[in-house]
Amino acid sequence: MALQQEQDSFYLSEEEYLTTEIHSDVKREYIDGRIYAMAGAGYNHNCISANILGEFRNHLKGTPCATFMADIKVRMGKDYVYPDVLVDCSKMAGDDVFSTSPVIIVEVLSRSTRKTDTTTKLLRYINLPSLQEYVLIEQDIVSVQVLRRNKHWLSEYYFLGDAVTFESIGLTLNVEDIYDRVDNRDMNEFRQEKG
User: Fold this and answer.
1) What pTM, to 2 d.p., does this model score?
2) Which residues form the Putative restriction endonuclease domain (predicted)?
3) Local confidence band at 10 (pLDDT 50, 70, 90 cut-offs)
4) I want to staple 90 with a disulfide (CB 3.0 to 4.6 A). Which of 3, 101, 132, 188 is the partner?
């Protein structure tokens, strides 16, 4: 989802953010005391997020782990963000509105979020003690980047024809399944070649 800073120099306390977020009609992230409104996402972004959500949810059925898409915040110290998809294996209650212990976080990149997702959020996410994998998925081209705690957060890239293993939940997905129904040049050429 696209980020848009509400005011260039407007700061809120953490308490003010949490109080106003409950009544806000717009989802807003809170980073370094600043508020960022979350704009809506397009077709490709939603396809990728839904594909990941569906595969994760089906795989994790009957386990303590739960998969969430876009409406559960992650709390990182005094910052609160909405990842596109996350998996949390802790016991969450019915009135919980944020996760403090995700094991996988997925962000679908766009022009407006790429810088934040690959810098600001990356640095915060990898400092979450529970996080095992951070996944960055391009929507305009086929490219899946996975950073893993057990590999010292070094990037591994996956493309069409590759399979991605999400080690923390024991699931392997073909890259083309992550991009099912996505309308970009790479996927359109791939579908034409297949048939």
Assistant:
1) 0.92
2) 15-175
3) low
4) 101
CATH class in words for 41-194:
alpha beta
Structure tokens at 136: 């960055």
- Among candidates 159, 154, 101, 155, which has minimal Cα distance to 131? 101
CA-to-CA distance for 15 and 102, rounded, in angstroms? 22
Give CA–CA dist 106/87, Å, rounded. 9
- State the CB neighbour count (10 A cutoff) for residue 74: 24
3-state secondary structure 148-184: EHHHCCCEEEECCCCEEEECCCCEEEEHHHHCCCCCC
pLDDT tens for each residue of 97-156: 889 899 999 999 998 889 999 999 999 999 999 999 999 999 999 999 999 999 999 999
Kindly tell me if the per-residue pLDDT of 8 is higher than 70: no
